[in-house]
Amino acid sequence: MALQERHRWMAANVASAFGMADRVNYVESVLGEYNNLKKLNDFLEGKSKHRHLFIYYQRPDVPNDQGELVDAKGDAKLIITTGEHEDVRIKSRAVYFLRNVADSKPVRADVTCDGDLLFGEMAASPLESLNTGLLDVFRPIVSQTSTDWASCEGEQALEFRVTFEKFTTELSQGIQSLSGGIDLPSPEPTDVDLRSLSYN
Asked: E strands of the chain, at which residues?
C-alpha cells in the first residue's frame, strides 16, 4: 500500500512537531511500514475502536531488573499507539490525531486536510498544558465583561465566569502541589523520652 495525501499530511505534521521538517521522507517511510500503515488505515477507516491516535518520538521503554520501565538503548524512534495495551509512557511530547466524524464514517485518505481529522500536540505534562491554555488563552477571553454572550443571560454569564475562575485557580493550585510536593515542617526536638511512654 502506498501513502495517500492524508498520510503525507499526517507525516508532515509529525515531522514538524518533532523538529524533523527536513526528514519528512523518514517519517513517511516509518508511517508506510506495514504494521504502522495498517494501524493508520484502520484508524482512518473507522475500523479501530478508538477515535484518537498518538505518535511519540522517543526511545522505547524496557523493563529493568526491578521491573521498572527505563529507556531502551539506541536512538529515538517513532511510536504509533492508541494508548491501550502498549506500555508506552509519554516522556517529552506526543502528537495526536482525532477523528471528527461519526464512528462508522471513514476519513478520506485522498484528501490532504479537512475538518474530519484533527491534529494536536501534547506535552509530557498534559495537566500543565491544560492549565497554561486555560490561564493564558481562555481566561482573558472569558474575563472580558464586554464579551458578547449571544443568547446567554447576564446572570448565567456571570455564574460561568465565577465558576471558570474558581476552576482555573483550583487546577493551578493542584498542579503546583503535585509538581512541588508538600513541604512539612520538621518536628521540634523534645525532652521527653519516647521510650518511657507506655500505651497499655
From this structure: 52-58, 61-63, 69-71, 77-81, 93-99, 117-123
Kindly report the number of other CB atoms within 10 A of residue 118's CB atom. 12
In single-letter form, the type of residue at position 147 comes to: T
Quote the CA–CA distance of 97 and 105 in Å, as a whole number: 16
Average pLDDT over every residue of 65-84: 86
Q: Are 117 and 98 in contact (CB under 8 A)?
A: yes
pLDDT tens per residue, range 132-158: 888 888 888 888 777 677 778 888 888
Contact status, residue 160 vs residue 144, Cβ threshold 8 Å: no
DSSP output for 121-187: EEES-HHHHHHHHIIIIIHHHHH-TT---TT--HHHHHHHHHHHHHHHHHHHHHHHHHHH----PPP
Q: What is the crossing angle of helices 24-31 and 5-17, to 10°?
A: 120
- Going by pLDDT thresholds of 50, 70 and 90, the confidence category of residue 57 is very high
Grid cell in block for residue 133: 491554555
